[in-house]
Queue: 2 jobs
Job 1
Amino acid sequence: MPLTIIRNDISAMETDAIVNAANAQLVEGGGVCGAIFDKAGSQQMAEACAKIGGCPVGGAVITPGFNLKAKYVIHAVGPIWQGGNQDEEKLLRSAYRSSLELASANKLKSVAFPLISAGIYHYPRQEALAIALDEIQRYLMDHELDVTMVLYGHSTAELGYKLQKDLKSYIDDHYVEEHYYRRLPQESEDLPMAAPAMMRQGSDEILQEIKIDFPHEVTFSEALLKLIDAKGISDVTAYKKSNIDRKLFSKIRSNRVYNPTKRTVLAFTIGLRLSIDEAQDLLAKAGYAFSPCHKRDLIVMWFLEKRQYDINQVNAALFDFDQELLGA
């Protein structure tokens, strides 16, 4: 997957490289830096960093990973938060960009990032995550690289209070327990979205309203390619804005009867900036529908209704509510 968010200890990641939230002196510190030095082998890592001699704020350097599962460590120096008027955003973006460029220059295929500067450097976490996701996405629009954002704890405040509150209210208003619905042969997440008025009716009436139309004359692949053309965007823009791997998109394009996962289809509804009706049609082409039994579907619907199409913000919201991320 081009960009994903997980909870983990970054020093345990098995990517080609992990990024260390380093200081300008490249000496062992606390937090993420201390954990990476410790697992890599403090003496070996200290000697490798000493040979480099230091790194400016906003820059990045690379060393071997030594005893880590990752082959390399990219040491990125983020800014100390000083209120936001000392070029902190510019320097933080530069730290991410420098790390990504270093990964590409060394022909690495995968890299894992911590949330740079959000620990002992006190960069506000919500802003730090937004900058990280935006800068990584900008880079991935022109480069092929698998990137993972590794958050050590739960990102309960990452979205910002208002966005999280609005999403929670939407979920509370629309969420329906699965036992109200008849299970279909497909996985339960494929059930269609029920209107709030229907939810207040008896279960038999609800079941009578549930109908799934599976058009056979146009496949998912054909419908997707027509939508891309109709939106006037390139294939590359379509799959990158949807957080879809290039190889997967190639399979979809070359196989007119390709059977995608639901999270792949949902990703395209965001990346192609679809309306709710367009999204429902595309889901139906793949044999799916929005379900009120799944919070992931409700979160995606909320973003579609609000016409907010940033796939990274959607995935941050899904992460915040412990849901599977979009893309593949």
Job 2
Amino acid sequence: MTILRDQFGRHIEYLRVSVTDRCNFRCVYCMPVEGLPWLPKAQILSYEEIAEVVRQLSALGLRRIRLTGGEPTIRPQLDELVRLLRAAGSLEDVSLSTNGVRLPELAGRLKAAGLDRVNISADSLRPERIRRIARRSLDFHPVAAATAAEAAGLGPVKLNVVLLRGVNDDEIEDFARLTVTRPWHVRFIELMPVGDMRELTPEHIVPSDEVLARAATVAPLSPAEGPARGNGPARYYRYPDAAGTIGVITPMTHTYCGSCNRVRLTADGRLRTCLFGDHEVDLRTPLRAGEALEPYVRRALAEKPREHELLALRIGGLGALSQVGG
């Protein structure tokens, strides 16, 4: 097998696949309240096309897939895509990032189709605040979504909390306490003020060191190993005898680009080599022409940047995180 490596020798084995650019939320840090110009259906990769991309890349060393959006569960019959992916290559891990709204109804079907685990966006535990952050009135609670995922066997369950100073940072301790009795992994993510989200500024960022200091007021924290399965850059901590862990993801204060092992496939078939760069290669055109994708993928990796430009806030071509699945 010829392993996929970028120009800096990093082994690329993880692909985040955006299955749709649409979402049933309008989270303040992710998408403008009015939405975005949606991609025409003809430009979006079919499930069969996504599976073919994965089939070709799995022969080159791809081992891990994460389905993202927009919100992936609003695309019909997502479980069928999971089945196709499981048949497409020797994948070690197929996971899903979701806002969790549809998990109570879909978790069992997704598990039966071959999904391994889920990450759930959970920016508040207070219903009214959830509505304010998501800017949608949906009957939803992240604890119910996580409970449904756990019951279906989609573990380890991770809750991703994007912190915004003055908005939800007073819930750090409440989220942290969930890990005492629940075998969940609560990860606090530093806000990434990008694109058209101009009302959010660096002043809204809550640094990870502050998060850990606040969480430690509940009980002493010790470094911990992360979940048994996972692809991400989180650093994990645990309370004494706790069932779960607390993690921090630090794109702003402690970058982790040096160990980057991922690329992203957009809903319209572009291979994006860095979340916050503007470099991408069209795979849809050669895919639909019946061409082998390997030369295009290798060209993309040869141009993958060493690190993102987020700290300089030079975010090329990215109007909102929802466009590339975060």
